[in-house]
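If you are new to this repository, start here. Below is one unmodified record pulled from the training split, so you can see the exact layout before writing a loader.
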Amino acid sequence: MASLAHKEMSTRLMTLLAPQGRPATEIVPFTILKDLQESMENLMEADWADMEMGLYPSSLLFTTSWRKWIQCYPLLCLDMPTTWNRRIRRNVTDLPNCINKSNYPNYYLQNFHNQTDGYLSDHSANLYDLQVEILFNGMADAMRRRILPPLLFGLKHFKLQSPWQMKILDVGTGTGKALQQINAALPHAQLIGLDLSAAYLQQVKNSFEQDRKTIPQLVQANAERIPFANNSIEGVSCVFLLHELPTEVRQNVLNECFRVLKPSGILVLADSIQLAHSPQFRVIIENFRRIFHEPYYYDYISDDITAHIRAAGFERISEESHFLTRVWYATK
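And here is the target side for that same chain:
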């Protein structure tokens, strides 16, 4: 309810104070909202069932940091006029002056979601998780957890290994939310988080320190050139990254995931639903790309991710949808 209240409040304020910045969206019919509600309830039921089966601890379902949200929310509200102004001016490269642009690929140097500083500042990293929870009506973590069942099942191939020898790489780890989920389900595994943003990797470090957990190995690198040896990783996860990549880069990243995985290693992807699998939510998908600056999303929603996975060399590919997330998993 809090996220819905924020969306309503921010929309009304934008209409009043910066009407030029309000995107042209379609009205979502009641029947679609009903389908969306049913889909969200199914996600919650699946999440609860997996917890009861022992795939991950019950504490994982109640990890919302309300204190942090209360601290961040005023900052988020203060940031809204800047975001509106950026949208009005169509300025999508409003990035910190201090960054060395040569360290990043061109496709990355943008204000994704119209957010201040793109992914290149502590300010952005501090607000990101709250922004995502508001966007998905509090369901972001539940959607991320959909990677855990196939990941745990796939890693059974390596059950004769010591749990401490198991290495799992989270590609495009961002603030490390997926790493935290994996850590709860596999507390002894060696976790690695890879991301282009030093600020977001610092956020990962901060979160694990606050939880008094062992800090994962954190690597600042481009996922098109993962700095690990061939056949060296048992599991690779990648959450909410592919839709922010150009088509050819998606393929390059999947090729790299295949290269670093050991034979029979498991790849698990989670990202936005697509038109082919969720045509009933077309209006919601279209509205998302109109509201947020997502330069590669229009291509993504029609892209054949399964074909990319197969082209990288993976086998036994499966896919399924949960609420607003599509999950793919495959083995090498």
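Two things worth knowing about this chain: Residues 192 and 241 are 16 Å apart (CA to CA). The mean pLDDT is 92.
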